[in-house]
Amino acid sequence: MLTIGVTDCSKYSNYSNWIISGSDDIEIIKLSPAKANVEDLKKCHGLLLTGGEDVNPKFYNKPEYSSYCYADDVNEIRDEFELQLLELAITDSLPILGICRGLQIANVYFGGTLIPDIPSWGKPSHAKLQDGSDQYHQVQVDDSSWLSKVLNQQQGLINSNHHQSVDRVGELLKVSARSPDGVVEAIEWKEPDVKSFLCMVQWHPERMNDQNNPFVKNIKNAFLTASRKKSV
Q1: Which portions of the chain are predicted below pLDDT 70?
Q2: What is the per-residue pLDDT across 133-142, written as a single tens digit (0 to 9) for each?
Q3: Is 191 an active-site residue?
Q4: Which of 9, 44, 100, 199 does the annotation list as catalytic?
Q5: Does the entry feature the keyword Hydrolase, yes or no (predicted)?
Q6: Is 162 a known active-site residue?
Q7: Which domains does the chain have, with CATH numbers?
Q8: Distant-in-sequence, close-in-space partners of 24: CB < 8 Å, separation ≥ 6
Q9: Which residues contact residue 36 at a Cβ distance below 8 angstroms, ignoring those fewer than 6 apart?
Q10: Catalytic one of 53, 82, 188, 206
Q11: What is the pTM for the complete model shown?
C-alpha cells in the first residue's frame, strides 16, 4: 500500500481525491495542525503540500508585508506545522509535491521570500474570475529544467487563483516555469539529479478542467512514481 501525506486545508478533499483517483492501492494520511501529527509523516512515502492561506510574512523576515495579506487568511500555526513537515520530509528524502501555497511555504522554508500581493507589485491579477472560477493563462517552461523533461513540452495552459507568488527564490532552488507576465509558476532543485523528488507549482492541477493535460497528469504520475520507489 502506498501512503501519501496530504496537508489539511479548507479544500482538503479536492487534493486527497485527486491523488487517489485511478488507483486502488493508495492510503491518505491527513496531516493537520489541529492534530499536531507531524510524526505521522514517517508513515508516508510522499508529501503533498496543499493550497490555502497566505504565508505570514514574518516567516520570511518581511513583517512589513502583513498589510498586503488577507487578515482572515493567515494561519501561523499552519505555517509552523508545515515548516516542520518540510524539515522532516527533506531529512528523510521524501518526494514532495507542492501546490500553490505549497510552493510558497516551501520557498520560504529554503530561505526565499514572497510577493504578498501580485497586483500591488505591478503585475496583472492572477486571482479567480468574478464568477468564482479559475482563470487560465499560458505558462512557459525552462527547456533546460527537470520539469521540462517531466512534461515533455515547454509551454501550455494552466489555471490560476492566487494573489501571492515567489519573489526571491530559496537557496538550492531555481525557477522552472513562468507566466507571460513574469510571475513564477514552478520551482525545483538546482541539482535535481542528486536530490529527492521536489516539484512545486503555482497552479492547481487537482482542479484543472483537462485532467489529461501534461501539466496535470504528468506531474501527478511523476510524484506517485517517485513515492512508489520510496515505498519499496
Answers
A1: none
A2: 999 999 999 9
A3: no
A4: 100
A5: yes
A6: no
A7: 2-231 (3.40.50.880)
A8: none
A9: 81
A10: 206
A11: 0.97
